[in-house]
Design brief:
The complex is a heterodimer of chains A (79) and B (224).
Chain A (H helix, E strand, L loop, with lengths): L1 E8 L6 H12 L11 E7 L5 H16 L5 E7 L1
Antiparallel strand pairs in A: 1-2, 1-3
Chain B lengths: L1 E6 L6 H10 L3 E6 L11 E4 L20 H10 L3 E5 L1 H8 L6 E3 L7 E9 L15 E8 L3 E3 L2 H9 L3 E6 L15 E5 L5 E4 L16 H10 L1
Parallel strand pairs in B: 1-2, 1-3, 3-4, 4-11
Antiparallel strand pairs in B: 5-8, 6-7, 6-9, 9-10, 10-11
Classes of the chains: A alpha+beta (79), B alpha/beta (224).
Chain lengths: 79, 224
């Protein structure tokens, strides 16, 4: 089983990289973009097929290391 | 007086820090991150600047799991004095020994230059040699120095006099180089034994090299 984790800055925490990308899209004349957030994706290859266990383990990994919950949110998808 | 300086893979300010404290008359020892205990006679523990673990994942995120960090946490919780400079500040926030977090600079650039800072609270061993409102000239060199704390956390910092330094111009008026909340350059914990700042006082020890304002800051620790 694979865990796909998306880590991004919390709503309300200014995302300067997102802002810079937004400006760049604007200057390339891509219109109609209201907001850009830049995050990172971490993909884990797990040795289990037990979704409940995987979710519990990966949540702990996010809390301990993969995200800094002072400034970041994370989403976990198991596939 | 014994100053113990931590060294992770990627730390690069440990020798400058050692030189600075030896210049002030302290004994120093550099301790590799695999150590499971700190020298028994440690009076001050410094987490030096640099790029521990290449800043992978987030600055300081991986260093917090180094074996030595358990001893550092115990040392700090027992009232031991700890100073984190630059990457050391990032490590201490990641380890939960200091509140808040350090984000990418708002301008996205690495900033390396002298910057003036205003002393906000001197009722602690770090800044007791200075007066509130004093302006010091100290180099900054960071990519992730944008201090963030939520509103409730900021109120706590203000109420407990935990804000140490703010970025200002030479007159002491706020001038924010990196987007930090309230232009904060350094904070301490509530107990005032753990200190962190992004600027490098150990690089401001000789007036012919631009500034010796770091002397008064580091001296505070030696006389405490």
């Amino acid at each position: 089983m694979k865990a796909i984790i998306n880590v991004s800055l919390k709503a309300g925490v200014l995302d300067s990289q997102g802002k810079a990308v937004h400006h760049a899209l604007d200057s390339l004349h891509f219109k109609g973009v209201n907001d850009v957030r830049v995050g990172k994706q971490i993909v884990l290859q797990l040795d289990t097929d037990d979704k409940t266990k995987a979710m519990a383990d990966v949540t702990q990994m996010c809390e301990d290391l993969l995200a800094n919950t002072v400034i970041e949110d994370y989403e976990i998808e198991l596939v | 007086m014994k100053v113990t300086i931590l060294q992770f893979p990627g730390t690069n300010c440990e020798y400058d820090t050692q030189h600075a404290f030896e210049q002030l008359g302290a004994d120093t020892e550099i301790v590799w991150h695999k150590a499971e205990s700190l020298p028994k006679d440690t009076n001050l523990l410094v987490v030096a600047g640099g790029f521990s673990y290449g800043d992978y994942l987030r600055s300081g995120a991986i260093a917090k799991f180094s074996p030595v960090m358990k001893a550092v946490t115990t040392y700090a919780n027992n009232g031991g004095k700890v100073l984190g400079i630059c990457n050391g500040f990032q490590v201490l926030t990641e380890a939960g020994l200091l509140p808040g977090a350090l984000k990418r600079n708002d301008g996205l650039h690495f900033i390396s230059k002298h910057h003036t800072l205003k002393v906000v609270n001197n009722d602690n061993i770090f800044l007791e040699k200075l007066n509130n409102g004093d302006v010091v000239n100290i180099p900054i060199a960071h990519h992730d120095g944008n201090y963030f704390i939520d509103e409730a956390g900021l109120k706590d910092l203000e109420a407990n006099n935990q804000i140490l330094l703010k970025y200002t111009d030479a007159n002491g008026d706020v001038k924010n180089p990196n987007g930090s909340v309230e232009s904060i350059a350094g904070v301490c914990n509530k107990q005032k034994n753990v200190f962190g700042l992004m600027p490098h006082p150990e690089r401001a020890m000789e007036s012919i090299l631009g500034s010796d304002d770091g002397i008064k800051m580091l001296q505070g620790f030696l006389e405490a």
